[in-house]
Amino acid sequence: MRMPLGVAVGRLASAFQRALASHQNALAHLELARTAVSRSIATAGGAGLANPAGGAGLANPAGGAGLANPAAPGGGLRPGVIPAQAGPADQLDGRPGVQAPVPMMLRELVEQLDGVGRKLVPGWLGEELSALLDEPLAGLSTVDDPVIVRIGEARVPGAGAFPAVVPILGGNHLVLDTDARDPWVAGMLRSLVLRLVAAAPAGSLRVLVIDQAALGGTFLPLRGLVEAGVMAPPAASEEQARQALDEAGTHAQRSLAGAAAGGGPWLLVVACSAGESRADLTRLATLTHAGAAARVCVVAAGWPEVLPGGESPALGAVTRVQIEGGRAWVGDPPRWRLGADGRGLAAPVALDTRLPAPVVARVVAEISERVRRESTLSFTDLIPPRLWEESSVEGLRTAIGRAGPAPVELAFDDATPHWLIGGRTGAGKTVFLLDVLYGLATRYSPDELALYLLDFKEGISFTEFTPTVRDPSFIPHARAVGIESDREYGVAVLRELRREINRRAAVLKRNAATNLAELRRATPDDETMGMGGPGPSSGSGPEDIAMPRIVAVIDEFQVLFERSDRLAGEATALLEELARKGRSYGIHLVLASQTVSGVEALYGKNDSIFGQFPLRIALPGGSGVLDTLNNAADGLRLGSAIVNSSGGVAGADTVVRFPDAHADRGAVAEVRHRIFELRTPGAPEPAVFAGYATRQVEDDPTFRGLTPGRRRPVALVGRVLDVAQSTGYFALDATPGRHVGVVGTSVLGADVLHAAAVSVARQHAPGTARFLVAPLVAGADEVADETVAALRAAGHPVTVLDAPRLREELRVLAEPAGGYDRTYLVVFGVDAASGVLSVRDPELFRSGLDDLRAVLRGGPAAGVHLLGWWRGLRRLSDDIGGTSNREDVSCLVVLNVPGQELGLYLGEIDLAYQPRSNRALLVDRDEQRTVLLVPFVRPGRVVEEA
Ligand SMILES: Nc1ncnc2c1ncn2[C@@H]1O[C@H](COP(=O)(O)OP(=O)(O)OP(=O)(O)O)[C@@H](O)[C@H]1O
Question: Are residues 651 and 764 in the same domain?
Fold first, then answer.
């Protein structure tokens, strides 16, 4: 029985109404509609699709009851929707065997379906794009269902054109027989990807492009999507292709494993030249069988029918497209048919190829903006609702930002024990580190986590973790904070970490554990945390097994290697050891650098260190921490980073956005105060080393603790650059030569002498020590006067000497008679007296220098010590009778003396000393001690001039 055309159309219309009502059910309705069409065609003409010419009215659209006239209101093609595309489609004619054009009903069907698809996928293309971009991008609420997407335009000679659509996602895949070296195919792939990502909700779809044949060039026009975090940088080599397919496989496995829970993003794998390798074909084919739950969709171009060794791997739920002489033939999609003969759409298709650059730019910008909007997170998003609830037994984890809308967490654990961070100046390194550190310090208590924070550059990176005058709060996890650190201080921190490794190794051994996690799993927390009884089998005290994980951050670590000297050698050895052993002992390194050369310096020195740093984080300009072939970080915007946990190899990058901690100072301060309030009462402040800070003896805790009655007085001269910043001092015992010589033209010499004099004075009861003070150089008068005043205020007798009187006193002191416990000769500018001292007494045949040398040797045994400042090493050497007598002044504080000159004087050729402002070298010949000092200076001293 024949069905009247009007009835068929009525059915069709109601089917479409339903389809339009719910895009969720679009495919079901497509099926319904198709059936209706087939039926109507079959009943109307009995000829079906294979021979539409036989269908009444179908061959002549104009006669087809409204449907046939595209311009007719309410039906047909909307003006401007289908572009009048020039190009191959204009020459299209029917597929061989197809006698007549595709029925208009089908054309209408597909047109209507594109109406549905338009809701699903923005329908812009070619010239129409600009017009449509005035509308907001149509978005999908989900991509969980199959999406009907337009790939081109079916053209029927003499009968107009209609959109050619295929189902994609939802378990549907697309395969083309021609690869993307064909510009037509390349254009279609780009257009398809752009339509899909534009429509998909942010974060619901990620695109992986494999493009070996064009070295990643096919998707160059869409590279903005990489930065938007929607598309991974194209895999352009065999190795990268393998990694991309690994990722797709893992994604499918994970999705299948979590299928019951539902959700999760989709991965669109676009293989631009699939036929490059049989292995890749097999893996792609496997994915087409995996079903919708795998949440991977394959679009593969260049799929060969046969391979040299046999058939191409069997494909699953794919729509095939063949390219023949500039025409595309679209096969039947899985589960339904586009034509009655089972051979697909019976009309050739001109693929969508044109994506005008300005339009692409605008779409990409809009997508980026949307992703940015939807993925923007603030500093507080990194902070857990409840503080200090995590255990660090298995490792440390913290949120650092988002990839699209998906939160990204990074870990310090067995897989990624240490991190390497790169980024040019101003790339946000400090902000990123603050994000990480606050994230950690809010998740883990100080029993679970300790921090060592070291910064070598000028700036204030870590200052906020330390108490200041304006804000006394601090982060109780921080044990040591170095700001504008010296290399020496850096090495001191590394030494301390090595000591901690050795301590932990011993505890582990005693407890028969091979690593920290094992020990802590076997030991109740209150014991390992230092709050309970002794360890299980060791009998060791709780302090002994207190083992929070330690994160040591070294910003601008390349400074350690900026010279090729003994210190750099030690730093390399220490870093290597820490990197190698840290994993087992819960000690994790974060090395950050702004220059590639910093990284290369270390590579050059020792290749193996960076093998221990699988996690690479590249901020803008930080490609140096990635593989040499991976320049993904070059075009990054501020606030984004490439995170790569495969040692930086290309293809394993994730673009992550992180919040700007600097932008929300109030929130940051509030978090810090919350952490501070939670600390155990009496928790120690971090030891803060600020490279620029000067030190005064009056503020020194050791100085304040000095009282009379010490057996051997100590002369305090500065603060050592060790982690505790211990006080630098010389013990003045009876050994010949126990005198303090301060050397250098710097006026800081006078300040150091002051510190030495007032500190020894505190160790004698008033009146039991006498001080002979000789201010011999004008530049030191002020300090000398202060010294005299301070000594007198302490109740000690003080005699002020000029050069001739100094000579007299030396004559007396050369044969000491006693009377006082100690006599201190404090000479500001010993060298200024050398003219007077070198004169020989005509009667005694002795010069002042002879007496000086006698005092230097014999004085200490009689309680006489010289505290002297020489304004040059040569002058000191001359006064004491040459380098062979150098033990006669065995305690030196060296200021601005060239390292080489000092090395020669001390007989240490490889001495790594560079004079710099606000620093001195403490040399104790008797104790074989050479350490860098921040010398004590008078308040208000401008040290830069030193
Ligand atoms: N995620 C972000 N979003 C927006 N702006 C950011 C972000 N991170 C950092 N910035 C901004 O970038 C600027 C530089 O950041 P930061 O001080 O962290 O850089 P840096 O790499 O440490 O620089 P330098 O090495 O010169 O100290 C700051 O003004 C900061 O506000």
Answer: no
